[in-house]
Design brief:
249 residues; Rossmann fold; 9 helices; 37% helix; binds S-adenosylmethionine
Length: 249
């Protein structure tokens, strides 16, 4: 499902940065799977599609020769630019504000990476991703489940079943199989928590319901959230499965 740009812009201030522990643990797992498959990041030109705040590009920067990172959300990139400058990574990372569809590939990259981004969803976008790399590609997507205690309760109250987003990784590997590209896939479980004051929790809950195509009943959402307040905060915990796919051209 293609999400409106405003969804990512709104999410940016809450989206984890490279310092987040859950993201760091995911990154270690992803890089480990890639290395087990033969990827060596040392001195390589790397493309990061839908880079967000630079959660993967920043930890890779010390090993890569150059990282080209792109994203269509300016607020995500503003955070990435700030961290890039603070960490003195100006020479290592080039950031482009563009959609994947509009990005023009001048030279292929040693390694292409697309993590948790709807930028690489359609057959054309997947094919462009595969064609952007000289050697290896790394894709990270949702696995079979994503459970968030409060959001799931809210979806139920709005008589909505979760039926989207997941299975991204499976669809990607199905494509690789169909075009006969050698690959490996590993699934892992990850979890994270976000604590918000009531107003921010309401905003978070509403934007998630809208993402599922639900028109939120604000009174219902408020009542459920009010019952969850502890020490002036509402804590949302998400448990999800992600999949890492590494392929070789
Ligand atoms: C969940 S974040 C992932 C960020 C980072 N890759 C990570 O793994 O933490 C998804 C990102 O994809 C970006 N995105 C969504 N659609 C895109 C598109 N068509 N072209 C480029 N970026 C896109 C969003 O703006 C957002 O920053």
């Amino acid at each position: 499902m293609e999400l409106p740009n405003s969804y990512w812009d709104k999410l940016a201030s809450r989206y984890p940065r490279y310092t987040d522990e859950s993201i760091q643990s995911d990154a270690r797992f992803i890089f480990g799977v890639a290395e087990d498959f033969g990827v060596d990041f040392e001195g390589k030109n790397i493309l990061d599609i839908g880079c967000g705040t630079g959660t993967l590009a920043i930890p890779l920067a010390s090993r890569a020769s150059k990282i080209t990172a792109l994203d269509l959300s300016k607020p995500m990139l503003d955070i990435f630019e700030y961290d890039k400058e603070t960490l003195n990574l100006e020479d290592k990372i080039d950031i482009f504000h563009t959609s994947w569809d509009d990005f023009i590939i001048k030279d292929k990259y040693d390694i292409s990476l697309a993590s948790m981004t709807p930028a690489v969803s359609s057959q054309e976008q997947i094919s462009k991703f595969i064609n952007s790399t000289l050697t290896y590609g790394i894709f990270v997507g949702w696995g079979d489940f994503k459970n968030n205690d409060i959001i799931d309760e809210l979806l139920k109250k709005h008589n909505t079943l979760k039926n989207k987003t997941f299975g991204q990784t499976q669809r990607f590997t199905d494509y690789l199989k169909a075009v006969n590209i050698k690959h490996d896939v590993k699934y892992f479980q990850t979890s994270w928590s976000d604590s918000y004051i009531f107003e921010d929790a309401l905003d978070y809950a509403i934007s998630h319901l809208e993402r599922f195509g639900v028109e939120p009943d604000v009174k219902v959402v408020e009542n459920i959230l009010l019952a969850k307040i502890k020490d002036n905060k509402i804590k949302f915990t998400t448990n999800a499965q992600k999949g890492v796919v590494v392929f070789k051209i």
